[in-house]
Amino acid sequence: MLNDSQPDLAPITRHLRAMFGSRLLIAAVSHLHVFDQLSNGPLSIAQLSERLQLRERPAMVLFPALCAMDMLRCHASGELSITELGRYLLQDQTPNLTGYVGLEKDDPGVIEMVDRLKNDGPLDAPQGISFVKEGEGPSPMDNQELARTLTLGLAGRARRLSPIVAAKLSRREGHLLDVAGGTGFYTYEWLMNNPSSTATILDRPAVLSVASELLDELTASGRSGVETLRERVTFLPGDMLTDELPKTDLLLAASLFHDWPTSTCQLLANRFASSLRPGGELWVHDAFLNDTLDGPLPVTDYSAQLFWNTKGRAYSRAEYRRWFTEAGLEPTAENIATQMDYGLIRAHKPD
Length: 351
Ligand SMILES: C[S@@+](CC[C@H](N)C(=O)[O-])C[C@H]1O[C@@H](n2cnc3c(N)ncnc32)[C@H](O)[C@@H]1O
Fold this sequence. Notes:
This protein is α/β, with parallel strands linked by helices.
């Protein structure tokens, strides 16, 4: 439970994620020479990506970040140009800060960021990629120890945000499918607000055993409303990319799409749309880029962190709404803020 006197924890996550934005800046200035590429005038995102030899995902992480830092400007035409501030990162400008920024260019985190930008991810990930289970490749989410560490690592965020999210999701009698539900806290809180509803948490088996332990802890807490939780929750081990999804009235995708590349996001949106009953609602809880792809800075920093750790990045609401529309859903125009720079959007399945 959360009352209004408790602070938004965003300063903590902002400072945490700033490290990744910082690495992007140093990589852009001292290794990729992004600003010098633009010294003769604006370029389209595609042209600049080609000159820098960057694929779509690293480009869509790097350019919005430099715009959010006010060093590049993204025009309505889609072209990128250098801002007045950004001119101080040109080698032929006097004075400039390229030498000063360059003092950090050999930092191991920066070197690794350059490699990841050029390669669109790590060159080698023997244990798989965090939070991702795809096909037959190794996944930390299927390794008991790693899955526990990663899931418990998310528990504090989920404990804090889940009462806020649950209070903003629709109250209705019916079924909630919490896809890739992790700790399960979003489901538990929603069920407590909807005492005659049921829910399914779908995730990998090793993650669900942690979720089940956390439910035991919650049940033992004696908090009002916890008594019937266990009988109203189904833990469903599976693969959201390939297994048939149960039919549902509400589907929650919390911090889910941002782990995946755009093609997988469209596939997931299609699958989620099929699992909704007519009149059903798809809810996404995530951190969203501006539709103009130029910030906000806390989210471009977060996008850099996601780029580093997963197969995804942060997406704009417009990108989500395109996937939903393509999947036959009707996105609403609401942008509902929660905390820690996250928010909710939703789409309906027509009756
Ligand atoms: C970033 S976590 C989000 C967890 C939770 N929704 C939250 O907000 O705390 C992503 C989750 O996706 C799950 N996941 C990854 N690939 C999956 C797959 N193919 N099928 C089902 N779950 C998957 C992971 O095990 C992990 O629990």
